[in-house]
């Protein structure tokens, strides 16, 4: 995960332990571990949190509890308030992408505030933030729950780190043109032998069409070899196999 | 959400109705409405889905059920398999951002496959896709559930909403998946007749390889037709032509 700045995830007056657990899981999926709880309704620790965290116990164990939002963000330089609602506050409203870019560029600690499940953040809590961060959502169906809001912002943040490197093996490079040329020639030869090109006047156009079809494929050397084997098999005699 | 291309969300063998409901909610938050269910474990409709959808009933009501993945994606030209796992398949692996950009630029229908809650997608299901889409995730805690995977991909897709849809290029659109399927089946049949698949223990892997090779091509309907003609010519008897 490296040492790049990691925002604190501040849950303000969260109600259900289950949702705190789900938020922890969402965080750890993208490498966030600094959870802060402001006045959790049912106290802390909460026995419902663990089972919902699906193994993100580390986040729950390290979670710190504060009485007020001010206390929770005392060490943070830049604070974002996650809310989808329009507010009467005159504040910058950022897309998650822009927020993530700011956080990663910031030399000082940042925090993201998330409101209670039903009521969200109070106006005076939003006012503590430097900016609002809003996930643009279907205006006819805005139903983002706490863990979903957390995971989307954590995901945007994670894009700036080492996680963003695709974990899978690099795709095989496309075969050099000479290999495709070999494939095309083989195919032409076999089709010629079968009397495929007819009438002669249209043969050049047909060959161009085939060439276009077989060179636009992006096949790797390995794949070109496999296709050449397929052509050989198609034109060859049927084989009954069974010997070692 | 406008008329830009919307990917179908294909849930393959989903187990809990609750998770189908959560996926529907995740979809509608970002304006996606085309849900397809392949062999849902507990049948369909499922009484557990509605309550978890939190009002996204429209998505559930419109959901269509299919017996096989092939049936579910028959009308789709480009198919993405959502999986975090390493596979023995040599396929492009895309970041959600790249996938979203491709979907929005595609003039033809696309689909995203999601596997069952525990087991994920089978290798031969992944092989049906044109590319894998992977959310880069904390390697030490990879615990993305179905609805979370859906919401992250839906979110990336939704980002393109305010952008102008690029003008469709004059290029022929990629053939729908059912046509590629026809080509693959024809090829398999002919190769089978030639005794190409040997030994039997490796046949499934060989078939997956061939499927991957022939579905990554981006061939149009016209080109698929031409390739099928080529296969027929290769396996047929040599013809001497000369008559008008």
- The fraction of residues in strands of chain A falls at 5-15%
In N-to-C order, the SSE pattern of chain A is EHEHHEHEEHEHEHHHH
Evaluate the radius of gyration of chain A. Answer: 29 Å
> Biggest β-sheet of chain A: count, sense, barrel?
7 strands, parallel
Order of strands, widest sheet of chain A: 3-2-1-6-4-7-5
Tell me the overall shape of chain A: elongated
Give the structural class of chain A: alpha/beta
End-to-end Cα distance of chain A, whole Å, is: 51 Å
| Helix share, percent of chain A | 40-55%
The multimeric state of the shown protein is: homodimer
Chain pair with largest interface = A-B, 66 and 68 residues
Number of helices of chain A: 10
Poorly predicted segments of chain A = 165-170
Provide mean pLDDT of chain A, rounded: 87
Q: How many β strands of chain A by DSSP?
A: 7
Summarize the structure.
Chain A is built from ten helices and seven strands.
Overview of the molecule:
Two copies of one chain form a homodimer. Chain A is an alpha/beta fold. Helix content of chain A is 41%, strand content 11%. Chain A is built from ten helices and seven strands. In chain A, α8 runs parallel beside α10 (221-235). At the A-B interface, α1, α7, α8, α9 and α10 of A face α1, β5, α7, α8 and α9 of B.
Write the layout of secondary structure elements.
The structure is a homodimer of 244-residue chains.
Chain A: E1 8-12, H1 17-29, E2 35-38, H2 49-53, H3 57-62, E3 64-66, H4 69-72, E4 78-82, E5 93-94, H5 96-105, E6 110-114, H6 123-126, E7 131-133, H7 146-158, H8 177-193, H9 203-215, H10 221-235
Parallel strand pairs in A: 1-2, 1-6, 2-3, 4-6, 4-7, 5-7
């Amino acid at each position: 995960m490296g040492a790049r700045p990691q925002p604190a995830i501040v849950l303000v007056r969260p109600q259900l332990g289950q949702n705190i657990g789900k938020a922890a899981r969402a965080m750890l999926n993208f490498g966030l571990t600094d959870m802060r709880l402001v006045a959790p309704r049912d106290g802390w620790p909460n026995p419902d949190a663990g089972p919902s965290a699906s193994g993100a116990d580390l986040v729950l164990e390290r979670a710190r509890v504060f009485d007020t939002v001010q206390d929770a963000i005392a060490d943070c330089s830049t604070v974002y308030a996650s809310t989808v609602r329009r507010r009467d506050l005159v504040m910058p409203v950022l897309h998650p992408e822009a927020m993530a870019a700011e956080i990663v560029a910031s030399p000082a600690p940042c925090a993201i505030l998330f409101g209670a499940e039903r009521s969200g953040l109070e106006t005076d809590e939003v006012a503590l933030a430097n900016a609002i961060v809003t996930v643009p959502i279907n205006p006819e169906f805005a139903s983002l729950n706490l863990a979903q809001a957390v995971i989307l912002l954590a995901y945007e943040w994670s894009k700036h780190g080492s996680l963003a490197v695709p974990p899978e093996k690099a795709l095989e490079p496309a075969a050099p043109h000479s290999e495709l040329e070999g494939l095309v020639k083989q195919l032409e030869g076999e089709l010629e032998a079968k009397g495929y090109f007819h009438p002669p006047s249209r043969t050049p156009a047909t060959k161009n069409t085939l060439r276009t079809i077989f060179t636009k494929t992006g096949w790797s050397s390995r794949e070109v070899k496999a296709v050449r084997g397929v052509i050989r098999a198609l034109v060859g005699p049927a084989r009954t196999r069974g010997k070692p």
